[in-house]
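During the second half of the funding period, the structural biology subgroup turned its attention to how the target accommodates small molecules. The most pressing case was adenosine-5'-triphosphate, which had performed well in the primary screen but for which no bound structure existed. We therefore specified the complex as follows and requested a full 3D prediction, including the ligand pose.
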Amino acid sequence: MTAVELAGATETPHPPDTDPVLDVRGLRMRYGAVDVLHGVDFTARRGEVLALLGPNGAGKSTTIEILEGFRLRSAGEVRVLGTDPARGDEAWRARLGVVLQSWRDHGRWLVGDLLTHLGSYYAPYATAAIRRPWPTADLLDTVGLTGQAGRRVNQLSGGQRRRLDVAVGIVGRPELLFLDEPTVGFDPAARREFHDLVHRLADLDETTILVTTHDLDEAEKLADRILILAGGRVIADGSADELSRRVAGKAEIRWSVDGERFVHAATDATGFVRELFAQHGDAVADLEVRRASLEDAYMTLVREHESGGRTDTALRVLRGEEER
Ligand SMILES: Nc1ncnc2c1ncn2[C@@H]1O[C@H](COP(=O)(O)OP(=O)(O)OP(=O)(O)O)[C@@H](O)[C@H]1O
């Protein structure tokens, strides 16, 4: 993207590239007499995509609302783009994008007009480095709604409506984007396009993205890092691959020789396969190596946690993360 300076643009403070975009330490939240968050810790760098996973009621929405500045925390240190969200002003808010589960107002607006109108609020917060807002035609093209520009919002299909939600969330070219269950109602093609869009935002614009989802396949495809929240704490923090590897330890290897099928579980899958070829050479067919999926890892970690806090695996995952 080219940097364009807009007339009347004011500089907003911009943390150095090395500063974390999100820095959460010892975050606690209590509703009445009930503690929901018991000390949540995590950070996120510029351009990183994080998926926040966890069972219903784990406190994902609460955490996000605190980061967005919509809810006051009970205790802990939180910095979002270098600012305490409890004290975030309009200039800080203009640097965030939020895609909530659904918007139901604005039904009578035309799609293009709505984006142009909402985008106009961001113009004063453009900087030399970040052009704000995103030009409407480019944005419609990016989210695949060019053909719907002249239609009323209440005439869109569910999936188109969701694309519009995404467009509304990114019209201000946010440095940090919150996506809550972003692809519910998308058809498979729209999902794939959306995943490409998220990767483009993270890679080209260096947007930091925090996604909450119950779709583990989506989390695995989208996120550089997975955070699992359970019992008010982050019980795992690492890439999908790291989590799966540490939880499962072994990979499952399947192959056939002369039409007979075999299965074996090995910690050193590469070594095992090397040995297999050394012994059977070209006779080895139908080879498959399968590591535990993120879903396997997630289920193991959450079940261990729920069955009375046997968090050996969770601790191992976190320890491994610290060692990196
Ligand atoms: N305003 C509130 N007052 C009291 N309790 C609340 C309030 N908001 C949330 N809670 C409780 O806090 C806990 C965490 O809720 P939260 O919505 O953050 O979870 P979640 O992980 O987002 O869940 P889900 O996956 O179901 O969306 C739940 O037990 C919920 O009932």
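Two results from this model are relevant to the next phase. Residues 188-204 form the longest helix (17 residues). Residues 31, 36, 54, 56-62 surround adenosine-5'-triphosphate (CB under 6 Å).
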